[in-house]
Automatic annotation (TrEMBL):
Family annotation (PANTHER family): HTH-TYPE TRANSCRIPTIONAL ACTIVATOR TTDR-RELATED, HTH-TYPE TRANSCRIPTIONAL REGULATOR
A single GO molecular function term of this UniProt record: DNA-binding transcription factor activity
Family from the record: Belongs to the LysR transcriptional regulatory family.
Protein name: LysR family transcriptional regulator
Transcription regulation recorded as keyword: yes
PROSITE patterns per record: HTH_LYSR (PS50931)
All copies of domain HTH lysR-type, residue ranges: 1-59
Species for this entry: Shewanella canadensis
InterPro entries recorded: LysR-type_TF_proteobact-type (IPR058163), LysR_HTH_N (IPR000847), LysR_subst-bd (IPR005119), WH-like_DNA-bd_sf (IPR036388), WH_DNA-bd_sf (IPR036390)
Any Pfam family: LysR_substrate
CDD domains (alphabetical): PBP2_CrgA_like
Keywords: DNA-binding, Transcription, Transcription regulation
Coiled coil: none
Gene3D superfamilies the UniProt entry points to: 3.40.190.290, Winged helix-like DNA-binding domain superfamily/Winged helix DNA-binding domain
Amino acid sequence: MDKLRGMVIFREVARKNSFSKAAESLQLANSAVSRYVTELEQWLNVKLLYRTTRSLTVTEEGKLYLEKIEDILDRVDLLENLAVKSQQELRGTLRLTAPSFWGAFVLKPLMVEFMSLHPKVKIHSLFLNRKVSLIEEGYDLAVRIGNLPSSGLIARKVSSIKLKLAAAPSYLEQYGTPEQAYELRHHECLIDTVPDHQTKWPFVEDKKNISVAVEGKMFSNDPELLRDLALSGLGIVYLPEFFIDPYLKTGELVELLPHQSQTAAPVNLIFPPNKQMNPALRTFIDMIADRLK
């Protein structure tokens, strides 16, 4: 028997909860639909459906089998369309999410470029400083900064971000300049609530990763606000370098402990396995990786 065809027909029968409606949908004879399901059951040696003259019910084994073949059939559909789609304009909708600062500084210009190249693709973006559940909230792609926990998601590293510790000269004149990371415990720190580390700032000491517990009166998920407070002499910040570098050049901020600052944190694009063959998604991911390499 054609096993793949049998899977397609069984899925349609289960969705329609009817042999006749599945046959109509698939433009097949009722007898052909019934035969395929029967042969599939015989091949699997398991009962997929309970049939009576009045009702049709998917068995527990059938529900489990249906769950497993859904992803297979989705992938087959995508593979069959890849060659055709590669010759056509990209279409569809991408739903993506990223931390606010990375979205604003890095992702927005890439989105503009991508939409200029592929005007038939729609993009729904969500930039905010919390981790979005791709599966539960229905997103195709997310940006994650830092080491990733184990999950069933696919990850592709596209860049890295280095944190820099800095303060204004006026703050250092008043409170002194820390010479070692542990001295930060005695300073006013402006705390970014986006990273997992928050009040335990990561550093490197003697080639080992350490963390220093810091305190402060200002907590915010807005790194630009924290930087502006630092510029006003109100404390020390530990932020991604692109927030700090322009002000180091002007002398408005002074970099602290450059020899102990954390090594670069990876930036990963993550997406569910069933999205990996989506042509628009794949093209967008490849473009991001190419521009940031």
